[in-house]
Specification:
The complex is a heterodimer of chains A (94) and B (132). Chain A has 94 residues and is α+β, with helices and mostly antiparallel strands. Chain A has one domain (2-86): Ubiquitin-like (UB roll) (Roll). Helices cover 17% and strands 28% of the residues of chain A. The radius of gyration of chain A is 13 Å and the shape is globular. Chain B has a single domain (2-127), classed as Cytidine Deaminase, domain 2, CATH 3.40.140.10. Chain B contains three helices and seven strands, in the order H-E-E-E-H-E-H-E-E-E. Chain B has helices spanning 2-8, 50-62, 83-91; strands at 14-22, 25-34, 46-48, 66-75, 98-104, 110-118, 123-127. A six-stranded mixed β-sheet of chain B has the order 2-1-4-5-6-7. In chain B, strand 1 (14-22) and strand 2 (25-34) form a beta hairpin. Chain B is globular, with a radius of gyration of 14 Å. The chains are: A alpha+beta (94), B alpha+beta (132). The interface between A and B is medium-sized, with 28 and 39 residues. Strand 6 of chain A pairs antiparallel with strand 3 (46-48) of chain B.
Chain lengths: 94, 132
C-alpha cells in the first residue's frame, strides 16, 4: 500500500532534495526498508547500532506518534501520511 | 529572537526558523517561538516537542516555506553552542541545519550568533548572520 513520507531537511540529501516521497509499506519497519532500497542511507541515519530507532527521531503516522502504535511494528494503510521528525533539544548546561 | 530571549530570562526560550534555502544560503522568513518543554532544568536546558515541529512543518509548507533551523537562548551563558547542544545535534538529524544561539543577561543585553551543524565534523561551524 502506498504511503506518503515527509522528509526532514537533513535527510533530503538522500532523496535528491525531495521533501516528500511515496513508498509501498505495511508497517514502519517496512517503510524504512523501502526508503533504504530507493534512497540508500536511511537505515543508517534512522537506526542506532542496536537496530533501534534513534532516540532523537520520532515518526508520526497521520499526526499520531508511532511509539504509541507499536513503533517499528506500527501498521500502515494506503493513503497514510508519515512524517519523520527530528527531536530538538540542548541548552547551556554542559 | 532577542525579544523572546529577553522576555524569557532567566529561563531558556526556543523557537523554529522557517523560510527557504537557495544556493547554500538560508533565508529565514519567520522565527516562531515555541514552548520550552524542558521541565527539570529550564534555566539551562530546552526541549522542542516533536508535536510542535510537526505542526509548524505542516503550516510552513502550506505557506511555501520549510523548517530551516532553530533558535534557543543561553541566559547568562555565552552565545555559542554548548557541549550539550553539540552532543544532541550529533545524535540526531542536524547535518546542515542552522542553529541561532542568543546569549542574554538580566540587564536585557541579547547577542544572537548563528551556527551550522556538520555531521562530518561532529561540530557546529560559525555562520554569518545578516538581518534585513
Amino acid at each position: 500500500m502506498a504511503v506518503r513520507v515527509q522528509i526532514p531537511g537533513p535527510l533530503r540529501s538522500l532523496t535528491a532534495g525531495a521533501s516528500e516521497v511515496e513508498v509501498e509499506a505495511a508497517d514502519v519497519a517496512a517503510l524504512i526498508e523501502a526508503l533504504e532500497a530507493r534512497h540508500h542511507g536511511f537505515h543508517e541515519r534512522l537506526y542506532d547500532g542496536q537496530g533501534q530507532l534513534r532516540s532523537y527521531i520520532r515518526i508520526f503516522i497521520n499526526d499520531e506518534d508511532a511509539r504509541s502504535l507499536g513503533q517499528a511494528r506500527a501498521t500502515l494503510k494506503a493513503g497514510d501520511r508519515v512524517a519523520i521528525v527530528p527531536a530538538i533539544a540542548g541548552g547551556a548546561a554542559t | 529572537m532577542c525579544a523572546h530571549a529577553r522576555k524569557g530570562h532567566p529561563f531558556e526560550v526556543c523557537g523554529v526558523l522557517v523560510g527557504t534555502e537557495r544556493d547554500g544560503v538560508t533565508f529565514v522568513a519567520a522565527a516562531l517561538p515555541v514552548a520550552n518543554r524542558e521541565t527539570e532544568a529550564p534555566r539551562v536546558r530546552y526541549v522542542i516537542a516533536p508535536e510542535d515541529l510537526l505542526r509548524i512543518q505542516r503550516e510552513s509548507r502550506e505557506a511555501g516555506h520549510d523548517i530551516v533551523g532553530y533558535y534557543h537562548s543561553h541566559p547568562d551563558h555565552p552565545a555559542r553552542p554548548s557541549e550539550t547542544d553539540r552532543r544532541i545535534a550529533a545524535a540526531g538529524l542536524s547535518d546542515g541545519v542552522v542553529h541561532v544561539v542568543v546569549g542574554v543577561d538580566g540587564a536585557g543585553t541579547a547577542l544572537p550568533t548563528a551556527w551550522v551543524f556538520r555531521d562530518a565534523l561532529q561540530a557546529f561551524e560559525p555562520a554569518p548572520l545578516d538581518v534585513d
